[in-house]
Amino acid sequence: QLVESGGGLVQPGGSLRLSCVASGSIFSINPMGWYRQAPGKQRELVARIDRGGTTWYADSVKGRFTISRDNAKNTAYLQMNSLKPEDTAVYYCNVAWSLTVLPRGSWGQGTQVTVSS
Prior knowledge:
Elements: E1 2-5, E2 8-10, E3 16-22, H1 24-27, E4 32-37, E5 44-49, E6 55-57, E7 65-70, E8 75-80, E9 89-95, E10 111-115
Parallel strand pairs: 2-10
Antiparallel strand pairs: 1-3, 3-8, 4-5, 4-9, 5-6, 7-8, 9-10
C-alpha cells in the first residue's frame, strides 16, 4: 500500500514537500521513486533513491527537487523548490527498479501539485 500526501496549490517559485508512506514489504528492500503525470502526458519518473541513499533525478527537476527516505518510518519524501507551472501534475510514489519502465502492480491515489499564479 502506498499513500501520498503534501500536494497543493503553490505560486511559481514556491516550495512543497511531498510524503509517501509505504507498507514495510514494499519499502524495506526496494529503491523508491517519485513519479508524476501531467494532463495528457505519460507518467514519468522524476526522482529515485535506493536503500543506501543514492539518488537520481530527471533533468527537468535536477537542482530543484530532493528525494529522501526514512527507512525506519517506511516513508519517502520529495522536497520541491523553485516550482514551475510545468511541474503541475499528480505525483505518485512507487518502487523504482528501472529508470524507464513503470512498475507493475497497484499505485496509490497520488497527490495533486498545481503551480499557478
